[in-house]
Structures are given as C-alpha cells and as structure tokens.
Design goal:
Number of helices of chain B: 0
Helix content of chain B: under 10%
Shape of chain A: globular
Oligomer: heterodimer
Low-confidence stretches of chain A: none
Largest sheet of chain A: 7 strands, mixed
Largest interface: A-B, 28 and 29 residues
Distance between the termini of chain B: 35 Å
Strand content of chain B: over 45%
Distance between the termini of chain A: 39 Å
Low-confidence stretches of chain B: none
Number of strands of chain B: 10
Radius of gyration of chain B: 13 Å
Mean pLDDT of chain B: 96
Order of helices and strands of chain B: EEEEEEEEEE
Strand order of the largest sheet of chain B: 2-10-9-4-5-6
C-alpha cells in the first residue's frame, strides 16, 4: 500500500527557509493531489497547500507569499519550502494524499485525504 | 475562507455509549466534507469521506451525515480505542481547505 515519509531539518533559524520532502512509496505519485498540513503544538490542523501530479498548486492564502510546493515525479517525491520563518511556524508537518474530487453519475464526490505520513517536527529557534 | 465550527469542544462519555459530534460550516460545502480521527502522537486517519461514506477499514459503528452547512459524526457504541480527537475538513471550490478546531472525545 502507499506510504508517505516526511524528511528534513528539525530545527530552522528564524528568517531562514524551512524545506521538507515527502517520499511516496508503494505507488505512483502520478495521480491525485499531494498535500502539506501542519499542527502547531497543542493546536488543530492547518491546511498549507497541495500540488497536483501535473504540477499545478493551490496554497493557503495566509502562507502564499512565503510558500512553494513542488513535485518530482521521477523521484516520487514532493516538497515544501516556507521562507522567512518565525516561531509561529513551529509545528508538526504532515504530508498526505488527497484523492480530490471524482465525478460519479453526474455528481462530484470528495474522497478525502486517505494516506498520511507520520509527521515531522520542525522547531524555529535561534 | 470557510470556517468549520465543531461542537462540543470536549465530549465525556463511557464505553458503550453513543457519541454525536457536530461540524457546522460558515457557508455551504455541499457534501465535500471528511472526518478524521487523531490519537496522541499519531497522524490523523480518514474515517468518513463525502460526508457519509466510511473509508476503507473503518468499523460500521462510525457513520456520517449531513450536507450543506450541518454535519454529524456518530459513533454508535464507543469502544475504548475510539477516545481521541476528531476533526472535520471541507474541500470547497477555493482554498484553503479548512479543518474544524476538533472535538476531544474523552472517557468519563
């Protein structure tokens, strides 16, 4: 079955760029939407953005000016870069597969985010 | 941005009881709503997609209902492993695809 694994530095200095990669195994990245979500300590879930396998992206407007999500289908990976980080960006970062919308019998169905990585903790601190 | 409001924030029940969790959207999301379960130290797990469809491997005691702005997740008879935090999430036309703030289901 498809598995996701986040990787990247656990500590980033303020004003620097946070870079994470999600490796997809057990299946191809060449379909579906690939998503980043984060969870600040003791808080709820925040949708960061996603990328379709074709390369088109959608970002959270609150992060858009600092955010880049990219995909490398040859490596079965997708990545997140968040620039000018502050302590407010300290969180557990998850990658997930979003199956998006599928049309069935004339109606769209939303299939949810059905595969998640285990999450990686990123702390922003000097 | 569509805001999802979950209630109650905390629900205290005993094993065997029925749990009813609510999610209200600030504007219609049709049926483009999913529910997730999160246990401490773990990633969220998809329970329900398209408002009322159980994801693969999810027990039949979990059910979802609703459309438009009002949604409900029901657990018919609580098992010890069901005590966790539950989130709803919408996927409307435009990002961000927001989550609710969560309902913590705790053992009474």
């Amino acid at each position: 079955q498809v598995q996701l694994q986040e990787s990247g530095p656990g500590l980033v200095k303020p004003s620097e760029t946070l870079s994470l990669t999600c490796s997809v195994s057990g299946g191809s990245i060449s379909s579906y939407y690939w998503t980043w979500i984060r969870q600040s300590p003791g808080k709820g879930l925040e949708w960061i953005g996603n990328i379709y396998y074709s390369g088109s992206t959608k970002y959270n407007p609150s992060l858009q000016s600092r955010l880049t999500i990219s995909i490398d289908t040859s490596k079965n990976q997708f990545s997140l870069k968040l620039s000018s980080v502050t302590a407010a960006d300290t969180a557990v970062y998850y990658c997930a597969r979003d199956r998006g919308m599928t049309m069935i019998a004339g109606d769209f169905y939303y299939y949810g985010m059905d595969v998640w990585g285990q999450g990686t903790t990123v702390t922003v601190s000097s | 941005e569509i805001v999802l409001t979950q209630s109650p924030a905390t629900l205290s029940l005993s094993p065997g009881e029925r749990a009813t969790l609510s999610c209200r959207a600030s504007q219609s999301v049709s049926s483009y709503l999913a529910w997730y379960q999160q246990k401490p130290g773990q990633a969220p797990r998809l329970l329900i997609y398209h408002a009322s469809n159980r994801a693969t491997g999810i027990p039949a005691r979990f059910s979802g209902s609703g459309s438009g702005t009002d949604f409900t997740l029901t657990i018919s008879s609580l098992e010890p492993e069901d005590f966790a935090v539950y989130y709803c999430q919408q996927r409307s036309n435009w990002p961000p695809y927001t989550f609710g703030q969560g309902t913590k289901l705790e053992i009474k």
